[in-house]
Amino acid sequence: IAGITQAPTSQILAAGRRMTLRCTQDMRHNAMYWYRQDLGLGLRLIHYSNTAGTTGKGEVPDGYSVSRANTDDFPLTLASAVPSQTSVYFCASSAASGYYNEQFFGPGTRLTVL
Amino acid sequence: GQNIDQPTEMTATEGAIVQINCTYQTSGFNGLFWYQQHAGEAPTFLSYNVLDGLEEKGRFSSFLSRSKGYSYLLLKELQMKDSASYLCAVTDSNYQLIWGAGTKLIIKP
Asked: Residues B33, B97: contact at Cβ < 8 Å?
């Protein structure tokens, strides 16, 4: 692995179903992020983690949860999917969460909720 | 509230120069990033400015004026592969990135 991987690449999901999007990085970065990207809107932060064992809420956290059990993995869970959660989801990481926090992005997961 | 404004779309000719502007109003400022995003792909880092002035990197340059809440990305000698969206993002007082909606750049032969 080189960089950040996400799985699945795409998914069609029935409303009300539970879904976990996976994200793994091999750069030993401390900070990780989940964004959603919708047409005409900028990337919006869902949740973040500044270091393993800690998580925080971003701009649009409702309906999503995360965990950070170790440095490499940062899964995003939709407990009960709704159509408004149809979006492209990007996982990102950065070496640190402070002043200079260049973020590296995974390839994205395209999720459709019907 | 926090706000970052960029033009939605711009068109330019291959070989020409284009300037993409970004204005911001955020709670605090700890730097400004420009990212490139090709259709269907992830954003990739282009530049970072934290002090006023121009940063040059090959065909791409980025300028920042903190007093005006303004930045631009300058692309020279445009190539067809430069067709992409360009995202402006500001690190706020909580060290979170606030993103603009992006500028879609269309390059014509």
From this structure: yes
Retrieve residue A82's tokens. 């709704």
Contact B43 A45 (CB under 8 A): no
- B44 CB neighbours in chain A (<8 A) are 105
What is the band of A15 on the pLDDT scale with cuts at 50, 70, 90? very high
Q: What are phi and psi of A58, to 5 degrees?
A: -95, -145
| % of chain B beyond a pLDDT of 90 | 88
- Within 10 angstroms of residue A38's Cβ, the number of other Cβ atoms is 13
Give the pair of three-digit tokens for residue A41: 């809107």
Picking from B31, B98, B101, the nearest residue to A100 by CB comes out as B31
**Total residues belonging to chain A:** 114
Is B7 within 8 Å of B105 (Cβ atoms)? no
A84-112 pLDDT, tens digit per residue, is 999 999 999 999 877 678 899 999 999 99
What contacts B74, CB < 8 A, 6 or more positions away?
A: B17, B18, B19, B20, B60, B61, B62, B63
Tens digit of each residue's pLDDT (9 = 90 or more) over B39-73 = 999 999 999 999 999 999 999 999 999 999 999 99
Q: Do B31 and A99 touch (CB under 8 A)?
A: yes
